[in-house]
Write a structure and sequence with these properties.
The chain is α/β, with parallel strands linked by helices and 284 residues long. The protein contains eleven helices and seven strands.
Length: 284
């Protein structure tokens, strides 16, 4: 791990519950001098976690890109950001087209994190005058990229042949491609699978995934959010080239994770996010 005595400015999205909240608690215990900023959708839960660990908090629902843009404006006063966890995500029924024109699962898991990272670009890039290196950007991906995806680069939203499981798998594959893309732009970006955990992320909807996560068996046999939070904290504080290689994807054992061949193609990542950047007016 990097020097744990050095204080860092760390932003974690999806931090009102689950592994985001667990990671925030872990980081606060490791070094209470860190400037922790947590982002959540639920006001009560987000406020409670922030109060518990003494962190600053912001509210944003990633189903609205307008709220993502507002969030980026609110974070401008932080100055340089050392680490950003693009952790917000979920599994949803659909297909559902948001007001921004994207399928909801793709927008929440991929488009919104890409937009937020792009809008914070100047705060994430190196600042030699301040002795600041390029930020670490961590994408919470999933083994679902291998088990559930059937990715079509011409239809990343999965409007065609939609199922909630395929859309989620495609979105998690998209998170791996986003890590590759951001790494190619000079950020220390990495994607990881937190583990199969008993969290609330999949409890919105009616599909098989939601039913499994809502069951009593999930809470008996799945891992605890704290283990996923430990992994997220590990990558947020990790040293690039030592604890992870930028642009790569790791499993819950912090080893290279299984992924579909298309997830390894930087050419696909560039096509996908160059096009998305033009559409959102945040070209890299």
């Amino acid at each position: 791990m990097s020097d744990q005595t050095a204080s860092k400015t760390i932003v974690i999205t999806g931090a009102s519950d689950g592994i985001g909240a667990a990671a925030a608690r872990k980081l606060q215990r490791m070094n209470n001098k860190h400037t922790l900023v947590i982002v959540g959708r639920n006001p009560e839960k987000t406020r409670a976690v922030a109060s518990e660990i003494g962190a600053r908090y912001h509210l944003a629902d990633f189903e609205s890109l307008g709220q993502v843009r507002r969030l980026a404006e609110e974070l401008q006063d932080l100055g340089h950001i050392d680490a950003l966890a693009n952790n917000a995500g979920g599994v949803f029924d659909g297909p559902f087209r948001t007001a921004d024109g994207f399928e909801r699962t793709w927008q929440v898991n991929v488009v919104a994190p890409f937009l937020l990272t792009s809008l914070l670009r100047e705060q994430l890039t190196p600042d030699p005058e301040l002795g600041k290196e390029a930020a670490t950007v961590v994408q919470t991906a999933s083994v679902a990229n291998m088990l559930m995806s059937n990715f079509d680069a011409a239809d990343p939203n999965t409007f065609q042949n939609f199922s909630r499981e395929r859309a989620y798998g495609n979105a998690k594959l998209g998170d791996i491609l986003l890590a590759r893309y951001l790494a190619s732009k000079g950020l220390n970006a990495v994607a990881f699978h937190p583990g199969v955990l008993a969290t609330n992320f999949a409890q919105s909807g009616t599909g098989a995934v939601q039913k499994i996560y809502a069951s009593k068996l999930a809470h008996r046999f799945f891992g605890k959010p704290s283990s996923g939070g430990d992994n997220l904290a590990f990558f947020l504080l990790g040293t690039p080239g030592v604890h992870f290689e930028p642009g790569e994807y790791y499993n819950d054992k912090r080893r290279p994770g299984l992924q579909r061949p298309i997830a390894k193609k930087l050419s696909v990542a560039r096509r996908l996010f160059d096009d998305l950047g033009r559409r959102l007016n945040v070209e890299w």
